[in-house]
Amino acid sequence: MNAPVFYLLALCATAATAMAVTRREMIHAVIYLVLSFFSLALIFFMMGAPLIAALEVLIYAGAIMVLFLFIVMMLEMGAPRVTRGPFLKVWGPGALIASAIFFSTAWLFIAEPGTAAGMAGAFISPRTFGHALYTKYMLAVEAASLLLLFALVGALYLGKRE
Amino acid sequence: MVPLSHILILSGALFLLGVACVAVRRNLLMILIGIEVMINAAGLAFVAGSMRWGAPEGQIFMLFLTTMAASEVSVGLALVVYLHKRKRSVSLDDFSEMRG
After folding, report:
1. What pLDDT, in 10s, does the model give residues B40-54?
2. A68 to B33: CB separation less than 8 angstroms, yes or no
3. Which residues of B touch A21 (CB under 8 A)?
4. Euclidean distance between CA atoms A133 and A156, whole angstroms
5. How close does chain A come to B37, measured CA to CA in Å?
6. End-to-end alpha carbon distance in chain A
7. A-chain residues within 8 Å CB-CB of B30?
8. CA distances (Å), A140 to each of A33, B18, B30, B41, B59, in order?
9. B10, A14: Cβ pair inside 8 Å?
10. A117-158 pLDDT, tens digit each
């Protein structure tokens, strides 16, 4: 694993999460959390888990955070407070974290153009992952599908009643 | 090469941030966000274990954690919408009374 990139990304993830949990505006918190999930996805990729990295971007940063954004915009919680102030104060933290994540992605692509991103022996391909998932852990997949069904029914029921 | 302990320290730091978010914030949506952060930190520890021992089990558990987080957040957000319909508020302090 490329150690400097890992420490840079770890710093990004911690800083973005710390910014997210201290924001007063919900939308800012959600966007900072998306930044944190992007850096975590890169860390997963460097740890030899490409499928988990893709799922992190697709499900966490994509689906779950967009669901949060929908609810925040639906629930009109008071008038939105427009942040004013010098350019650096408003845009600084987010731009810094985002550019650090972009920089480490570029670094990974240039320094280690291979697919496994410099992992020595712990790279687990999506094929191995899927094989283990659908043979050894078949029962757990069934249980997860039941859980998703219950969540769907529960969310529908809660949304329907007056 | 990054030692396993440093990844676990990162995971612990993220988990603590999530715990602080749940314990301190009074907004229901921020509490759900804190739970998301905690689930993600636990998943990071699982994937780190998977890397350390070269086994796919940790990554498979991370997939189930993602499933659980998705269903938890859908039910949780439906509850938040329902509570907002009842009292026009998402602040935890407005829901501190029991009827009866």
Report:
1. 999 999 998 888 888
2. yes
3. 17-18, 20-21, 25, 30, 33-34, 37
4. 29
5. 8
6. 54
7. 21, 26, 29
8. 29, 27, 30, 21, 14
9. yes
10. 545 557 778 888 888 889 999 999 999 999 999 999 998 888
Check: CB of residue A3 under 8 Å from CB of residue A11.
Answer: no
Sign of the C-alpha dihedral, residues A33, A38, A40, A41?
A: positive
Spatial contact of A129 and B53, defined as CB atoms under 8 Å apart: no
Got the DSSP string for B24-84? H--BHHHHHHHHHHHHHHHHHHHHHHHHHHT-THHHHHHHHHHHHHHHHHHHHHHHHHHHH
**In the numeric block, which tokens belong to residue A147?**
């859980």
Evaluate if pTM is beyond 0.95. no
- Amino acid A100 reads A
Global ipTM: 0.89
Spatial distance between the Cα atoms of B20 and A74, rounded to a whole number of angstroms: 26
Residues in Cβ contact with B96 at an 8 Å cutoff, skipping those fewer than 6 apart: none
Q: How many helices (H) and strands (E) does chain A have?
A: 7, 0
Facing A155 at nearest CB: one of B59, B68, B74: B74
Amino acid type, B2:
V
| Measured distance CA(A107)–CA(A116) in Å, rounded | 14
Q: Name residues whose C-beta falls within 8 Å of residue A17's C-beta, 6 or more positions apart in sequence.
A: A32, A33, A36, B14, B17, B18, B37
